[in-house]
Design brief:
By secondary structure, this protein is of the alpha+beta class. It has 29 helices and 23 strands. The longest helix is centred in the middle third of the chain and has 37 residues.
Amino acid sequence: MIEAASLADPHVSSAPGDALLDDYPVPASGYDEMCAAPGVLRPHWRDLARFLGETGGEELERRHTEVQRLLQADGVTYNSYGDPHGAPWRWRVDPVPLLMTGEEWSVLAAGMEQRSRLLNALLADLYDQRLALRQGWLPPELIYAYPGFLHPCHRALPAGSRWLIFHGIDLARGPDGAFRVYGDRAQSPSGAGYTLENRIILARALPMLYRDAPLRRLASFLETERATLAKLARHHPENPHMVLLTPGPNSPVYFEHAYLANYLSLSLVEGEDLVVRDGRVWLKTLGGLRPVDVILRRVADAYCDPLELRGDSLLGVPGLLQAARGGHVALANALGSGFIENPGLAAFLPPLCRQLLGEDLKLPSLPTWWCGHPGDRSYVLANLERLVIRSILPNQPHWDGSRLDAAARAQLADRIQAAPHLYVGQETLPLSTAPVLEDGQLTPRPVMLRGFTVADGDGYRAMPGGLARVSSGLDTLQAAMQQGGISKDWWVLAPTPQKHVSLLRQSYGPIFVTRDGSDLPSRVADNLYWLGRYSERLDGTARLLREAFGRLLEWEQDNTDERCLDDLLDALDIPVPPVAESPRARFFSLRQALLALIVDADHADGLRIILDGMLRTGRAVRNHLGDDSWRLLNRLQQQIQEPPEGLGARQARELLEEDLMLIAGFCGLNNETMPHHQGWLFLDIGRYLERVLRTLDLFHLAFITARNPGVPLWEVVLTITDNLTAYRRRYRSALHPTAIIDLLLFDEDNPRSVGYQLRRLQRNIGRLQQPDHSPYRSAEERLILEALATLQLADIAALATLSQDSTRSSTELSRLLEAVEKPLLGLSDALTHSHFSHAEVPRQLIAMRP
């Protein structure tokens, strides 16, 4: 049972008794965030402990499941470094927040803000006057051996400019209760977006806890960040064009890039979207080049400019450094700021703080010894068994001396002696623990924090909270998310509940109203076009499969004619199985061939391959899709990528029914919620081009190349196009090929007919902005006009005599289908040439010297 704390100790308090808390195993050594001792709660945890006790472990687990469901619905992912296939890893959040008092936070925030001021001053010095070098405050080997120190960035900013705008600080509490810094992040300090999403999701899953909780809000920090970015603009300070530069959907934290871009009202761009002309950075859009004033950078320094930095980079913008050097674009953070991630700096920060700021360092680093100094090297070599050895070079392994045998330590000592300036030794301190919900029980787990600061006026402002990460086991020293950690919401308590703050507030300044969507980047238009094509391809394949499974089940139950299944396999590009010895053997052979398109992740024509293309293009335009559309896409991903075990024909058909409903919902939401401007036009063009090509293929199969032509196959075509009911309502008679052709080929009022689809394509293509502003028809306009005119000028009377054995009319239909299809096959290339060609990814033509 939890016992009452000693009245002589004001820092601890008893907690209400509850089984959830009674069995909490406080570690025998170290610092636990919730309990000062077994059975003794820290005072600021008492209200939360009461809530947890009243809620109970079973209900908390139910809420935890709801948290994970909401995260999955929102598509919150992290691409784990440990996954060899790079598959997005589902973000995990523990429902129990991590609490910190306002008084303790004030001290920690002051230390974080001072650290940002110090590192900004150091960057300004190293890339300009270099007093730290000339006065001997820093050894040159530590600077010049580190690849993050970029010589081309010398005096890249005007005097007095801020180098460090956004700063991530990894820290943890040691066994003595004091916080220490484990690392600094300036290249791409991820976590702020995940922090905000954690708070929003947990508030939805635990509304009673969050509604009146006295915690400091996060939105005001992001409001400060956006205001700071706007103040960096030199050319259009009243309405600057600001972008977030991302490496793209393959980035481990692409979700956060899209999330922050949307939240901060920034354009999400990749390097290929930008170009430098006349010393300025421009965004390539469908309406031409648009100037960029501020870049929130999430691409590593060296990859940002292949002209002056890494020549093999495909992520950056040639000439970006020169544009920044000329003051025509502001970068947050400035190129070269990644130098502060050098782990060797930790050994020199206390004296540097006194030299550069005239202050004592408030927030110490993990005790660090730089081996380039003889005294430090001697200490490290003498204490290898209790230190962690790290290289100052990025992406290098580290060695825990306590886990090495004598031979391995000797080998490590030789490595250090050979290049001592490249290594540091760091003390290993047990991390504090925090409660995590596991199987309805609270369990202590090591916790690390990532705090954030942003430039604000002449100083910095710390985010009141941040990203807390707990490891999956007590023996894990650093709870990195890449290694499978779990995140927590980090609460900073306030005296009273805080007012809700949102970035969505009324603007009192002038705004330029626009509707045409001409600012759409060409790359985004390209991806929207292919998103439309993949979504329709997935729909068409699922419809074919559903009908095939339906016919297969009918054959099994009623012994009906199954010969049209061979034609459906042809439509699905599946080899028709050889004639089996028995109907039962044929049934299983056909079923396995069809199931392969659902369960086989590597099947070239399978649902999962098509979905991969849909997800890839969808993620690339994430901030152009509505929240509901994105949730449906995530549900579709789960449905297709995780089919149930032991799938049979009936279950497969039911699964396909659900898939089709989700696809229809996704396409319908995009049609109903996206403004019908340039982006929607490309999405819709992609859908209807794919649909008309698939419809023509169905016609060709049913009336020209069918193995088993006739009524069963005609009924299949009407069912796949969802027009069987329309046919029966219109004709109330047996199926006739002439009526089917009119309904699905010529009827321009039928959304599933070729005529309607060509009309829609012509209308949408005619609304596209032409880059050359020519008064003449573009190539794509000519092609769609040719296809539509061919159909409209067709001799319908010659086709009206079509029957099962009419060779002449079949030939006429075949010629018509080929004539309509021919210009459509060139339409995609024409669109690419007119609108997407300048969005092609650059290629490395020659090998770069190391």
